[in-house]
From TrEMBL:
It is found in: Nucleus. PANTHER family: EXOSOME COMPLEX COMPONENT RRP4, PNAS-3 RELATED. This is EXOS2 protein. GO terms for molecular function: RNA binding. It comes from Rhynochetos jubatus.
Length: 253
């Protein structure tokens, strides 16, 4: 038996409300409401809380703050070299308190704290968009957590329950190494799409439906007959999510 279970009178009983997970003969129960437990390779969205010596502290909805080492980030311009004292002094120019980043879990420390890296150009500082915080148990694990949706916006579904919705960039920046943020005004049409996506995600979470690119897109399409602000009405929420659930079942069937 694994986590979230106990034995009473030779019966295995769940100690938390959640989902049963079986790995070969090991039986665990994964709690529905829980803080994020990091696994190597996870994609996370986090907020810088502190700049320390050769490292940044990042809030990732875990029990302990995550760590992003200076040696685990790309330098602007993408050059590869040993980090010097000048780099250490310039750390605040790269990332400072309050900045949002996307990163990958590189390793887990013995106390359970997570070590992150942003070594690929798809990770790095996040610019303009909307952050939605949900329970990590509702984010479905997939091959990729970066999705450019056909409705004109993109989402990063962080395994840690932080979801970032942002306008789809017209061209991918290759040179900046993930530190330049586009602060141009976002057109109203894009802002409306982002607001609608945000309300759809809130609706899916309220109705306890798993979040992945297809469920979000179906929910977005089901919400189109309604005003953006009306999506948050409980009756409308239920109607939209019911339609989404039905389409997902048809897809699986």
């Amino acid at each position: 038996r694994g986590h979230g279970t106990y034995v009473e009178e030779e019966k295995l009983i769940a100690s938390v409300a959640g989902v049963v997970e079986r790995v070969n003969k090991l039986v665990c129960v994964k709690a529905l409401k829980t803080r994020y437990n990091g696994e190597v390779g996870d994609i996370v969205v986090g907020r810088i809380t502190e700049v320390q010596q050769k490292r940044w502290k990042v809030e990732t909805n875990a029990r302990l703050d995550s760590v992003l080492l200076l040696s685990s980030v790309n330098l602007p311009g993408g050059e590869l070299r040993r980090r010097s004292a000048e780099d250490e002094l310039a750390m605040r120019d790269y990332l400072q308190e309050g900045d949002l980043i996307s990163a990958e879990v590189q390793s887990i420390f013995s106390d359970g704290a997570v070590s992150l890296h942003t070594r690929s150009l798809k990770y790095g500082k996040l610019g303009q968009g909307v952050l939605v915080q949900v329970s990590p148990s509702l984010v479905k694990r997939q091959k990729t957590h970066f999705h450019d949706l056909p409705c004109g916006a993109s989402v990063i579904l962080g395994n840690n329950g932080f979801i970032w919705i942002y306008p789809t960039p017209e061209q991918k920046e290759e040179e900046a190494g993930g530190f330049t943020t586009n602060l141009e005004p976002v057109p109203l049409s894009d802002r409306e799409v982002i607001s609608r996506l945000r309300n759809c995600i809130v609706a899916l979470v309220t109705q306890k439906l798993m979040l992945f690119d297809t469920s979000i897109l179906y929910c977005y399409e089901a919400s189109l007959p309604h005003q953006i602000k009306d999506i948050l009405n409980p009756e409308v929420m239920e109607e939209i999510v019911l339609e989404t659930r039905q389409r997902l079942l048809n897809l699986e069937g």
